Amino acid sequence: MLHVSEGGAAVAVRWSSGDRTAEIEFASPRFRYRDASDPFLASDDMVEYTVRVSGNGLAAEILVLSLDTAGSGLPAFLEQLGEDFRGWNGTRTWENQDRDLRVEATWSSRGHVELRWWITPSIYDKWSASVVVEIEAGAEMSALAHELSSFFAL
């Protein structure tokens, strides 16, 4: 289930099945940067934000910097998943430039998508954490893409 805080300062996806729960939250966008004078960065956005994952006793968070290279960022990836609501084979993956946030999407025959969200704070840390949330493949996925697009727009 998709949750958006008042004012859009946080976007969360929560999933539960019986006694199993999982959540990923995007919160506290700190800045957005675009350098229109640089021809290599003119259409790119950089956004710094917090990502929290939790579920069944696990809780972890990291600070993430994402580069949306001319519309190829996380919202665009999720929007493409929403457009492909009839399904696909295998696993589709998106990760940010620093490889500290990754999502793997697997379509299920029930019209839902399992999103496994991975966080790894840096190449120097020896831990990573992941949670799996399941959402509806069409409208709910598109709504998540829309809300994250608004979140990243600050």
Give a quick precis of the structure.
By secondary structure, the chain is α+β, with helices and mostly antiparallel strands. The protein has 2 helices and 9 strands. Helix 1 packs antiparallel against helix 2.
Shape: globular
Structural class from helices and strands? Answer: alpha+beta
Largest sheet, spatial ordering of strands: 1-2-3-4-5
How far apart the termini lie comes to 22 Å
Largest sheet: 5 strands, antiparallel
Show unreliable segments: none
Count of DSSP E strands? 9
Instruction: Give the number of helices.
Output: 2
Task: Kindly estimate the percentage of residues that lie in beta strands according to DSSP.
Answer: over 45%
pLDDT averaged residue by residue: 83
- Estimated helix fraction: 10-25%
Spell the H/E element sequence.
EEEEEHEEEEH
What is Rg? Answer: 15 Å
Structure write-up:
The protein is of the alpha+beta class and 154 residues long. It has 2 helices and 9 strands, in the order βββββαββββα. The longest helix has 15 residues, at 139-153. The radius of gyration is 15 Å and the shape is globular. 23% of the residues are buried.
Question: What characteristics describe this protein?
Answer:
154 residues; alpha+beta; 5-stranded antiparallel β-sheet; 2 helices; 9 strands; 16% helix
Helices and strands, with pairings:
Elements: E1 2-4, E2 10-17, E3 20-33, E4 44-55, E5 58-69, H1 74-83, E6 91-95, E7 101-107, E8 112-119, E9 129-136, H2 139-153
Antiparallel strand pairs: 1-2, 2-3, 3-4, 4-5, 6-7, 7-8, 8-9
Helix pairs in contact: 1-2
